[in-house]
């Protein structure tokens, strides 16, 4: 009688593990996805900062984009060539550099895209040093 009781418990444990495993894997992949997006957001902000530093001393748009892409490097999470970089010199005495990365470059889990913005955006404004 006792032997039969233990063999049924072993099967119950396997069934419970099979039910919990997909939820556990989704949680682990979600944490990984969030960490990857946070790292990418920080990289985009750093690219905007580096681009603004170069722009503040009078560089042209090509040099700004090259410096921003070089500051990101090849992280493995996204391709630096996918960054959209824009420099705005419309306000007198300052320059604004905006760097965008489409989230489609980062999504591993399809349902995560509902909870995050369409683009990761880094924006930095610095004083124009050429004036």
Brief descriptors of the model:
2 helices, 131 residues, rod-shaped
What does this structure look like?
The chain has 131 residues and is of the alpha+beta class. It has one domain (2-127). The chain contains 2 helices and 3 strands. It has a 3-stranded antiparallel β-sheet. The radius of gyration is 24 Å and the shape is rod-shaped. The relative contact order is 0.17. The mean pLDDT is 85.
Structural class based on helices, strands and sheet pairing = alpha+beta
Cα Rg: 24 Å
CA distance, first residue to last residue: 92 Å
Contiguous runs where pLDDT drops below 50 for at least 5 residues:
none
Query: Strand tally, please?
Result: 3
Strand content: 15-25%
| Total of domains | 1
- The whole-number mean of residue pLDDT values reads 85
Q: Share of helix among residues?
A: 40-55%
Assembly form of the protein: single chain
3D shape: rod-shaped
Give the strand order, joined by hyphens, for the main sheet.
1-2-3
Instruction: Characterize the largest beta sheet: strand count, sense, and whether it forms a barrel.
Output: 3 strands, antiparallel
Order of helices and strands: HHEEE
Number of helices: 2
In short:
This protein has 131 residues and is an alpha+beta fold.
Write the layout of secondary structure elements.
Layout lengths: L1 H55 L4 H12 L11 E5 L5 E9 L16 E9 L4
Antiparallel strand pairs: 1-2, 2-3
């Amino acid at each position: 009688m006792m032997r039969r009781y233990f063999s049924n418990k072993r099967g119950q444990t396997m069934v419970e593990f099979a039910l919990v495993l997909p939820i556990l894997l989704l949680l682990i992949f979600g944490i990984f996805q969030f960490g990857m997006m946070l790292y990418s957001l920080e990289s985009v902000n750093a690219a905007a900062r580096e681009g603004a530093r170069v722009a503040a001393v009078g560089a042209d748009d090509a040099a700004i984009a090259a410096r921003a892409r070089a500051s990101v490097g090849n992280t493995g999470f996204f391709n630096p060539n996918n960054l959209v970089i824009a420099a705005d010199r419309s306000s007198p005495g300052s320059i604004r550099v905006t760097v965008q990365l489409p989230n489609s470059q980062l999504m591993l889990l399809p349902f995560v895209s509902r909870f995050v913005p369409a683009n990761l955006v880094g924006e930095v404004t610095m004083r124009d040093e050429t004036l």
